[in-house]
Amino acid sequence: MGLDIAFWALAIIGVAAALTVVLQGNVFRAALALVLCFVAVAGIYITLSADFLAAAQILIYVGGISILIILGIMLTRDVQHGSPSNRLRIPAFLMAAVFLGVLVFTMTNTPWPVSSAPPVEPTTSALADKLLGAGGFILAVEIAATLLLAAILGAIVLVREK
Amino acid sequence: MPSVGLTHFLILSAVLFSIGLYGVLSKRNAVVIMMCLEIMLNAVNIAMVGFSRYITPTMLTGQVFAIFIIVVAAAETAVGLAIIIAIYRRHDTIESTRIDLMKW
What is the pLDDT of residue A25? Predict the structure, then answer.
């Protein structure tokens, strides 16, 4: 019962924040609504008993990516122009609505093989086993580290003054 | 009202993804487009973790995928904002309709 209340509250907050990001005319306020949306998604992870992911979401998205985006807004000084729509606003809306309809139709009509086993809690050590243990995702972890290094170097090269 | 299950999380994910899709397709400001992209990635993560929780609760593979999505999203945001700032320096605008040097 508590899970239900938490899910509905977080879902309503998250969807409202995402709508604010899309509909808000002020870019800076849209970025603040985006932070709220990230926090709501972290709460959704907690209702899904993914505690490590919730902490990572707070650290990376709320703490890192949102600061990066706000910095980007300030460096480009485009706040006064707002966030106008382009000419394709109505086709874009129709396409998103049709896409949502197709997704909801397939998701509600598929017989998911739901398992009744209790979830692993806490997930941190089990995730570490999966990522770094034998037969895990160690190669992908190494590649992700290389990707992050390449992204940092690429970002520095792109914004460096000539 | 039925108790919250996998379908609820999947529909929440679909709603967030569609909101992000509408924003990506309809906005002019490149930074706002990137913000909507982040919403879409978060929606995908919710679906991944939902499948992991309800279909394979003991395997956690979906959560591992979600971690990799977060890593790639962080790299994408860093490079994307760097590109946007470089474009702003050169053209004094980040309106996606006016960045049309390579448009046919």
Answer: 82
- Answer yes or no: do A8 and A69 share one domain: yes
Residue A127 belongs to what domain range? Answer: 120-162
Answer whether residue B45 shows pLDDT above 90. yes
Chain A environment of B81 (Cβ under 8 Å): 68-69, 71-72, 155
List the domains of chain B with CATH numbers. 6-91 (1.10.287.3510)
Which of the four pLDDT bands, split at 50, 70 and 90, describes residue A10? very high
pLDDT of residue B90: 86
Determine whether the interchain pair B16/A108 forms a contact, defined as Cβ–Cβ distance below 8 Å.
no
The answer for residues whose C-beta is within 8 angstroms of residue A156's C-beta and 6 or more apart is B82
> Which tokens hold the place of B33?
């487009």
